[in-house]
TrEMBL record, chain A:
UniProt xrefs under Pfam families: CCG, DUF3483, Fer4_10
Keywords for the protein's UniProt record, in alphabetical order: 4Fe-4S, Iron, Iron-sulfur, Membrane, Metal-binding, Oxidoreductase, Transmembrane, Transmembrane helix
Membrane-traversing stretches: 6-23, 69-88, 94-114, 135-154, 160-180
Superkingdom of the source species: Bacteria
Protein name per Swiss-Prot or TrEMBL: Fe-S oxidoreductase
TrEMBL record, chain B:
Molecular function per GO: electron transfer activity
Domain Electron transfer flavoprotein alpha/beta-subunit N-terminal, chain residue ranges per copy: 11-186
InterPro entries: ETF_a/b_N, ETF_b, Rossmann-like_a/b/a_fold
Organism, scientific name: Marinomonas communis
Family: Belongs to the ETF beta-subunit/FixA family.
Official protein name in the record: Electron transfer flavoprotein beta subunit
Signal sequence range: none
Length: 637, 256
């Protein structure tokens, strides 16, 4: 009878429609700019990346990771076996039993998805995502019943035409979501796009426990610099946006979102999806950008993003803290996208908000953001008796002073660090007036031309001298020197040089016994991880080791380590100064106060400035080098 | 008929680093020019077309910069004045004085003299152009403005009180066309004989604050100077004028 064949026909038809949808989706990504990837190696590596790297992130939420393994694994297995049993009609009972097993696994997983969706946390998107667990359950149940005869549990032809009709509806609902929806932009799109995103990720170094945080250089010869339209992104960036599961983990971690600034990383990625597919955000069912209504954004691959899809303030609210990237289970690169779009605003439109334009102009004219005379860069060290590279030429440790040299508060950190180095008899010198701004702020503000110029000139200076290590107290300069200068280091000025943050270096000195320290006798101490030291460079340990070496038991904040919350000072955010409901620094200081600490230890002059800007009463703020220097046992020579 | 507006630009010098930059007043002249003429604004530089600073000006959104190509020691005035004449300019905007070179502030005056046009010095804004006349706001000390009406064509030197220049964008600056024409070959005789030295801040008269209360001090700091102390001497003899100056110097204890 024809009706007996209906399930098989439906399966094949929906599968084909799904594949057509996927091909169409892929063509949307191909509107992006070319970027070389290794297709074969990427595809081969994909299962491993899924099982290890992606699950490593999902694992942080045990409930979800187990649920996902059961549902996802169950579905993939069932889908293969459904084809074997119901399309190719393989009649081995054992196969049918295997299919039943896989479907049951999926059913259990789907049940837990259902449970989570009963009372979903705010960060999750609603809308079509709310029907997903029901579709999953429908799929599993339908095929369980459909498979019972093949497994020999029910006689063939049970239920007759009526049952087949009912099951056919189930197939349409279940496979409609899982196959058709996968290709045509339903919630299941994430599985298909996500798998390919893992295969063709723009930063393959991130897999297998690696880290890749340096921004990619902008092409300054392009006819339009930066990203103006969705089609200006690399094709695999577009693919990455499409992988978003709208889990909102990024939103939950975003300091700008929490401060009520008009940014929500999840919504931003969804707006990018709107841009690449064309249309409006009317169907978006998650939290909005704070203070902005949903439904007004429109875009298409060839329309300017900031002319209707995403507002400029949204892009300038980001502190580039990378909390979202660290948290995203789909390994989406929000910061890259945001800076790409800022590049267009700064280098093509000249629309860096607030103090941005002034700061950039200062950096261009004086190599420091404050516009101070370059010849006064070493004034802070007048009484420090520090050797200068111009005279020394060769040294063990080059101390990269950074722009803290112009700021009185930061100078206290610099002096403390110098004193520690002297106590440990380190062979050290500075560049003096030959040093320039690292380019960090310029780059985060979208002015890659100025960053590249600074990087090249700094490298040319560094190339004249010999040193084994570069040490800096500024995590932003540290990040640039360690992760971003290599793209411009044609002559190998930094080849073989160890780039260290001062906490790492001081920890080495303490461990080797070169620094003798007394026990710390103050009150409770907490430690704030600077984003550019922690998430950007993976250094969580050395600062803590140092504090412990003083006998301090660190009262950890709830958000610490890789989940540390930004102080609000990164990415040029204090310069562009987009208003919100609260200040990020205030929120961070509340985190610190909640531990009952009297002292917040930090490892960054920018964090120090931001946290000290919070009104008293609040815990004291000190750089680790300042804490150490107070406990230094000075030996009389 | 749209008016022909020309902004003249020079190579500036950053006060702290001494490095070349777009000059503050000149870039305000470009900003005002953009307000008056939009993309029709003609921006002109007499000097080297390879000068990177020109790109900083162009980054304000200029399609092209006209460069009257000439060497550094050549006089800019002849080239500029013949260009302005040939282009039938209605309004020419310059800075009050350049930040490098002679920095004499003479350029607008010499041009006005050669062209026989009026000059309005220290302009804060040009409000309206109508019927061959322009409503111009002059910048006076302490944020005061004076409105004057000037017949076209004229030359205006732009004060620091004018609208600050917009941000310079790298991309458009890089891509702008440098439209080169031959400038003058005439040596700048004055300049050749000058020697350059870093400018010293002009000595300021010490203010003797007699105020007793905060309110008085606030007034002293903000109120416009009260007239009445000065004296205009027009008809007196040179002897009398000199005596008056001499008396003042003694009174101010500059000489004793
Ligand atoms: S980098 Fe930080 S501030 Fe920017 S979107 Fe991500 S979480 Fe928010
Ligand atoms: S961008 Fe990543 S973390 Fe944010 S909602 Fe999408 S999948 Fe989740």
């Amino acid at each position: 009878m024809v009706i007996d064949w209906l399930p098989s026909i439906l399966i094949v038809v929906l599968l084909l429609l799904g594949v057509i949808g996927m091909l169409r989706r892929a063509s949307l990504w191909r509107a992006g700019q070319p970027e070389k990837v290794n297709i074969i190696a990427g595809l081969m590596a994909m299962p491993g990346r899924y099982l290890k790297d992606l699950h490593h992130v999902v694992e942080r939420d045990k409930y979800m990771s187990k649920t996902h393994v059961a549902t996802g694994g169950g579905f993939v297995l069932s889908m293969v076996l459904v084809l074997v049993v119901h399309v190719f009609k393989v009649e081995e009972q054992i196969v049918a039993w295997a299919l039943l097993g896989a479907l049951l696994l999926m059913l259990v997983g789907a049940f837990f998805v259902f449970k989570r969706r009963l009372n979903p946390p705010e960060r999750l998107s609603k809308g079509p995502w709310m029907r997903l667990p029901k579709s999953l359950i429908t799929f599993a149940l339908t095929f369980i019943v459909l498979t019972l005869p093949a497994a020999g549990i029910l006689p063939d032809g049970t239920g007759g035409v009526l049952l087949i009709a009912v099951l056919s509806v189930g197939i349409v609902i279940g496979l409609g979501e899982l196959l058709f929806g996968m290709g045509w932009g339903g919630p299941m799109k994430h599985a298909f796009a996500g798998a390919l995103h893992l295969a063709f990720h723009r930063r393959p170094e991130r897999f297998g426990g690696g880290r890749s945080t340096g921004l990619k250089p902008a092409n300054l010869d392009a006819s339009v610099i930066g990203v103006a339209k969705p089609s200006d992104f690399k094709w695999n960036q577009l693919l990455g946006f499409d992988a978003c599961v709208q889990c909102g983990k990024c939103q939950a971690m975003c300091p700008a979102f929490a401060a009520g600034q008009p940014l929500n990383p999840k919504k931003l990625i969804q707006d990018m999806v709107v841009g690449l597919a064309g249309g409006s955000d009317a169907n978006y069912a998650g939290s909005p950008y704070p203070g902005k209504e949903v439904g007004q954004a429109k875009g298409s691959p060839n329309e300017i993003i900031t002319a209707g899809l995403v507002s400029q303030e949204t892009l300038w609210s980001c502190t580039t803290c990378r909390a979202c990237v660290e948290e995203c289970p789909m390994m989406i690169e929000h910061v890259d996208a945001i800076v790409d779009m800022r590049r267009f605003l700064t280098m093509e439109k000249g629309e860096t908000p607030n103090k941005g334009s002034e700061v950039l102009e200062n950096i261009i004219a004086t190599d420091n953001p404050g516009g101070y005379a370059p010849g006064s860069r070493t004034n802070w060290a007048a009484d420090q008796n520090l050797a200068v590279m111009k005279d020394k030429k060769e040294v063990d440790v080059l101390f990269w002073v950074s722009d803290g040299a112009f700021d009185m508060r930061s100078q206290r950190i610099l002096r403390a660090f110098v004193k520690l180095m002297k106590a440990a008899d380190v062979d050290v010198a500075i560049l003096g007036d030959e040093e320039r701004d690292s380019g960090d702020v310029a780059r985060r503000l979208g002015d890659d031309a100025t960053f590249q110029s600074l990087a090249k000139r700094n490298l040319a200076t560094l190339g004249q001298y010999k040193f084994n290590k570069i040490v800096t107290t500024d995590p932003h300069a540290y990040h640039c020197l360690r992760n971003e200068y290599a793209d411009f280091d044609k002559d190998g000025a930094l080849a073989g040089v160890e780039v260290l943050h001062h906490t790492t270096f001081l920890n080495q000195l303490v461990q080797s016994g070169a620094l003798k320290l007394d026990a710390f006798k103050g009150g409770k101490v907490t430690y704030h991880d600077p984003c550019y030291l922690g998430r950007y460079n993976g250094e969580y340990k050395a600062p803590r080791d140092l504090l412990r070496s003083l006998g301090i038991e660190i009262a950890e904040m709830e958000r610490s380590g890789f989940r540390s919350r930004c102080c609000g000072g990164g990415g040029g955010a204090p310069i562009t100064d987009i208003p919100g409901e609260r200040r990020i620094a205030d929120m961070r200081m509340e985190d610190a106060s909640a531990t009952g600490a009297e002292l917040v230890a930090v490892g960054c002059q920018q964090c120090t400035a931001m946290l000290e800007g919070v009104v008293e009463p609040r815990p004291q703020v000190k750089d680790i080098s300042e804490i150490l220097v107070d406990q230094l046992i000075e030996e009389v020579h | 008929m749209p008016h022909k507006v020309i902004s003249l630009i020079s190579v500036g010098r950053h006060p702290q680093s001494g490095r070349s930059r777009r000059a503050d007043q000149d870039s305000r002249a470009v900003e005002l020019g953009l307000k008056l003429a939009g993309t029709d604004l003609d921006v002109v530089h007499a000097g080297n077309a390879e000068e990177p600073v020109l790109r900083q000006y162009a980054g304000m959104g200029l399609q092209k910069v006209t460069v009257l190509e000439q060497t550094e020691t050549a006089d800019a005035i002849p080239a500029l004045s013949s260009y302005l004449k040939a282009e039938k300019a209605d309004i020419v905007l310059t800075g009050v004085r350049s930040e490098s070179g002679e920095s004499s502030g003479m350029t607008p005056y010499l041009l006005a003299e050669q062209l026989g046009w009026p000059i309005v010095a220290r302009v804060a804004d040009i409000v309206e152009i109508k019927d061959g006349e322009a409503q111009v706001l002059l910048a006076l000390p302490r944020g005061q403005r004076r409105q004057v009406t000037v017949k076209l064509p004229f030359i205006a030197s732009i004060d620091n009180a004018a609208q600050a220049a917009r941000q310079s964008a790298f991309g458009p600056g890089l891509r702008a066309k440098m439209d080169t024409q031959t400038g003058s070959t005439e040596e700048d005789n004055v300049r050749v004989n000058w020697s350059e030295a870093p400018a010293k801040a002009r000595p300021k008269r010490l203010k003797v604050v007699k105020a007793k209360t905060a309110a008085d001090r606030f007034k002293a700091a903000t109120a416009k100077p009260q007239g009445g102390l000065g004296k205009v001497m027009k008809n007196e003899s040179a002897q009398e004028k000199a005596q008056a100056i001499f008396d003042l110097l003694i009174e101010e204890k500059v000489i004793r």
